[in-house]
Amino acid sequence: MRKPVIAIDGYSSTGKSSISKIIAQKLGLVHMDTGALYRGVTYFANTCCQNEDGKINIQGLFENLDKIKLEFRNINDELILFLNGKDISREIRTNEVSSNVSLIASQKEVRDFLMETQRSIAEKGGVILDGRDIGTVVLPNADYKFFLTASVDERTRRRFQELTILGIKTDEKSVKENLIYRDKTDSEREVAPLKKADDAILIDNTNLDKRQTIDLILSHIHDI
Ligand code: DC
After folding, report:
1. Sheet order of strands, 86-87 included
2. Which of 6, 33, 81, 101 for a ligand 1 pocket mutation test, highest count of atoms within 8 Å of Cβ?
3. Which mutation among 13, 14, 38, 184 tests ligand 1's pocket best, with the greatest number of atoms within 8 A of CB?
4. Does residue 200 line the site of ligand 1, with CB under 6 A?
5. Binding site membership of 131 for ligand 1 (Cβ less than 6 Å)
6. Which atom of ligand 1 is nearest to the CA of 189?
7. In ligand 1, which atom is closest to the CA atom of 36?
8. Which domains occur in the chain, in start order?
9. Ligand 1 in reach of 38 Cβ (< 6 A)
């Protein structure tokens, strides 16, 4: 039997990626964290294409998109993102990348550039992709679609904890500001904005822990 294609979209720090990873392990699916791809392009832009004022030169990035080779490699059962052969899994979580990623993700050229990588992995089924536009744009025919949300304060708490564990220095105020800014930019952009697909199941996990969110999602998945 063909394994399902599952789309998990939603706001930043609702646990999409870590939840998708565990569901993938449980159901024997391949997981792709599509946010990491946008972060990878942003990391590349930060290193290749900055103006003198330190801002990203978007046109310069477009001209250099063909120099980007992003791939996930399976290392000890973890999908690690490599950019042109270099492990960038830590670099893509820094504040520098987080503060520019929404701008980069709002560019049509960048979204088109990453489309094929996302769609090709889903062709044979047996995948779970998490992101912002998976159920609406990338995989509109996915077998299951979920949309995760949670309060801003709870998401700030989770993000702060995650960054602290990664050893990235920050404070709760800037984490919250970045989340609010990204929610707004991601939802209001013209191309593939963050929004719930009409046929997606809405899950508010403000008061649910990871385990409970996973169980709730699994309770909707049948025939596997
Ligand atoms: O999930 P994340 O926080 O790592 O995502 C980083 C950014 O990438 C986020 O601000 C929105 C963007 N993104 C997107 O536009 N489309 C996706 N499918 C995934 C992420």
Report:
1. 70-75, 78-83, 86-87
2. 101
3. 38
4. no
5. yes
6. 15
7. 4
8. 5-217 (3.40.50.300)
9. yes
Total number of residues shown for the chain: 224
5-59: pLDDT as tens digits: 999 999 999 999 999 999 999 999 999 999 999 999 999 999 999 888 889 999 9
Q: Report, as an integer, the average pLDDT of 202-223.
A: 96
Rounded distance from Cα 157 to ligand 1 centre (Å)? 19
Distance from C-alpha of 168 to C-alpha of 91, rounded to nearest angstrom: 10
DSSP bridge partners of 202 = 147
Token pair, residue 129, equals 């992709």
